[in-house]
């Protein structure tokens, strides 16, 4: 049985995702700064947070909000300076909060010096740093692959008279990991940041780094006559060799963690990816977020789903990491809509939904990752027009929906439901203008509900989502079975309640979360001999749960 002593620091803590552009602006420029994060470290500490994953803050033209890196060793001036970053790392370390950097290594910005050189000619030392191909015999793109953000995955380059591959936007050319110089350069960058004392890395889009040996058209999967690039390039044989090399050169001998973003890895493959024999400590896999969105991630065609589908996905991931590796628990990130909309099929208060799902987030086995604003109970924003959105994927999904014959209203509704911008609106600190996020004009509109959904108001309200998150963080700290106990699903076929038991050494907890809008019942012998440790609705009646009520029992 696992005990606290067996676990590393990052397995016992709570991680928090900071989207720096929307966290706190200390300069009145409308976008957040690194100094803003440093200023709020005590707030994060009050949530039990011991690691902050900061999405890319490197120098970037910001076509994809920093996921198009120009220089991995520079801070983008909009966020501040390297001295600000050093200060954040130092202040964080003083408070027991480690900074986790986001490594975007599948691609760079087209403005990265490597690509600027590479595109110049087929000769030269950077010629082979990206994925270049001659045109097809008809002069068109080498294959029919569609990029993840829509349109062909190939872009023509006049200078070289060749196409280059971009899994994401045309401004994000894919690196050629087959080239050992590329791999060495990336390892050096990771070590540059590790040497600064960061606590770990989140590694972006990592399943796409290994391209297939032969580039061939894939089956057409939509009316645009294309095939998703994903199908041809995700999780290709040989990828793990690259990653073992990376792990040995960066991770070994350091007290850090690495979590990979791994779309395309199934729960039953997790054992090759995580743990002693694996390449990462944890892996963000998306089987549960695909439940409401569908694996094809076509927003105008969402999936039909029921609670047992979600529970099944979560249980599969829990079981796959029961004996090896570790699971990063998440329901939100900067690419997902807000969980209070995404994972509920009923009406009801957003705050109640946030508390019910927050209970699951903080009591499953693994390291919880809280997306900024999730602890306040954000809903999706009501976007009135496509012009209000910033995100390039949202615009492309909108165009795709129109092309598929959906009306502008239907296309907008799909974006309201799934847009990544729902997760990216500014963090709401208080009820003052712009929710205290900026003295300038916010780059993305502040949510309409900011007068009540904000850190200051919720800190003063014992029933708020924020107070509930703090209560659960304290509960985790006091009840080790919530951290290291085993996971056993209960009531697996129930369509209202997600229930499980966490069995520790000499102590156990049972969590019951009614994720439906109707009252629910359960067999009270499941919690026999236990006492109520925490409940979203205060005292509870044994054997019944009110709509959206979640309880934690323990003994
Ligand atoms: C990852 C990031 C996403 C970004 C994409 C391309 O999926 O999370 O925000 O757009 O990679 O870098």
The strand order across the widest sheet is 13-12-10-5-2-1-15-14
* Form type: globular
- The fourth-level CATH homologous superfamily of the largest domain is Glycosidases
What is the CATH-assigned architecture of the largest domain?
Alpha-Beta Barrel
Structural class: alpha/beta
Task: Provide a count of the helices.
Answer: 18
Biggest beta sheet summary: 8 strands, parallel
Gyration radius over CA: 23 Å
Number of domains: 3
pLDDT < 50 runs, ≥5 residues: none
The overall pLDDT average reads: 97
And the CATH topology of the largest domain? Answer: TIM Barrel
Instruction: Work out the helicity level.
Output: 25-40%
CATH class of the largest domain: Alpha Beta
List all distinct small molecules, including ions and cofactors, that are bound in this structure.
Answer: alpha-D-glucopyranose
Number of strands: 22
Question: What's the structural blueprint in terms of helices and strands?
Answer:
Elements: H1 9-12, E1 14-18, H2 34-39, H3 41-45, E2 49-54, E3 58-59, E4 71-75, H4 82-94, E5 98-103, H5 113-118, E6 132-133, E7 145-146, E8 154-157, E9 162-165, H6 180-195, E10 200-203, E11 227-228, H7 229-233, H8 239-250, E12 257-261, H9 270-273, E13 282-284, H10 290-293, H11 307-320, E14 328-329, H12 339-342, H13 350-361, E15 367-371, H14 392-403, H15 408-418, H16 455-459, H17 465-478, H18 481-484, E16 486-490, E17 497-503, E18 508-514, E19 520-521, E20 531-535, E21 544-545, E22 550-554
Parallel strand pairs: 1-2, 1-15, 2-5, 5-10, 7-11, 10-12, 12-13, 14-15
Antiparallel strand pairs: 3-4, 6-9, 8-9, 16-17, 17-18, 18-22, 19-21, 20-22
The structure holds alpha-D-glucopyranose.
């Amino acid at each position: 049985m696992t005990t606290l002593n067996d676990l590393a620091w990052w397995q016992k803590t709570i991680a928090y995702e900071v989207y720096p552009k929307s966290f706190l602006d200390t300069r009145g420029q409308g976008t957040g700064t690194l100094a803003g994060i440093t200023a709020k470290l005590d707030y994060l500490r009050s949530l039990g947070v011991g690691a902050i994953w900061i999405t890319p803050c490197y120098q970037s033209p910001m076509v994809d909000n920093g996921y198009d890196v120009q220089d991995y060793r520079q801070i983008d001036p909009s966020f501040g300076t390297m001295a600000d970053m050093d200060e954040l790392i130092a202040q964080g370390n003083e408070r027991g909060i480690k900074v986790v950097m986001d490594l975007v290594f599948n691609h760079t910005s087209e403005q990265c010096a490597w690509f600027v050189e590479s595109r110049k000619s087929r000769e030269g030392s950077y010629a082979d740093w990206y994925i270049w191909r001659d045109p097809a015999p008809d002069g068109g793109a080498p294959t029919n692959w569609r990029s993840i953000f829509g349109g062909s995955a190939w872009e023509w380059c006049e200078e070289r008279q060749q196409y280059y591959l971009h899994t994401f936007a045309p401004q994000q050319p894919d690196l050629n990991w087959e080239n050992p110089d590329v791999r060495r350069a990336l390892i050096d960058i990771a070590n540059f940041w590790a040497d600064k004392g960061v606590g770990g890395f989140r590694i972006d889009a990592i399943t796409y780094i290994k391209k297939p040996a032969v580039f061939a058209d894939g089956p057409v999967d939509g009316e645009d006559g294309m095939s998703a690039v994903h199908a041809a390039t995700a999780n290709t044989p040989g990828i793990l060799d690259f990653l073992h090399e990376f792990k040995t050169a960066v991770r070994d001998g350091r007290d850090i963690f690495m979590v990979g973003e791994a779309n395309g890895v199934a729960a039953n493959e997790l054992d090759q990816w995580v743990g002693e024999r694996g390449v990462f400590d944890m892996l963000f896999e998306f089987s549960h977020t695909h439940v409401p969105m569908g694996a094809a991630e076509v927003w105008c065609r969402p999936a039909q789903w029921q609670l047992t589908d979600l529970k099944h996905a979560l249980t599969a991931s829990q079981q796959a990491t029961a004996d090896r590796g570790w699971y990063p628990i998440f329901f939100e990130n900067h690419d997902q809509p807000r969980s209070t909309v995404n994972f509920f099929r009923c009406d009801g208060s957003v705050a109640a939904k946030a508390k019910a799902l927050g209970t699951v987030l903080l009591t499953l086995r693994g390291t919880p990752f809280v997306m900024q604003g999730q602890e306040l109970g954000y809903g999706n924003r009501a976007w009135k027009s496509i012009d209000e959105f910033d995100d390039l994927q949202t615009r492309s999904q909108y165009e795709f929906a129109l092309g598929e014959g959906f009306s502008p209203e239907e296309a907008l509704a799909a974006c309201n439901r799934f847009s990544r911008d729902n997760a990216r609106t500014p963090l709401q600190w208080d009820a003052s203008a712009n929710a205290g996020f900026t003295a300038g004009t916010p780059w993305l509109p502040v949510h309409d509900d900011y007068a009540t959904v904000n850190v200051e108001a919720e800190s003063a309200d014992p029933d708020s989502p924020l107070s509930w998150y703090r209560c659960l963080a304290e509960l985790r700290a006091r009840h080790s079975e919530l951290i290291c106990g085993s996971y056993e699903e209960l009531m697996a076929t129930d369509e209202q309640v997600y229930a499980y038991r966490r069995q520790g050494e000499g102590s156990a907890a049972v969590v019951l979360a009614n994720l439906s809008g109707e009252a629910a019942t359960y067999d009270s012998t499941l919690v026999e001999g236990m006492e109520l440790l925490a409940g979203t609705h205060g005292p509870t009646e044994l054997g019944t749960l009110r709509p959206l009520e979640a309880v934690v029992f323990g003994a």
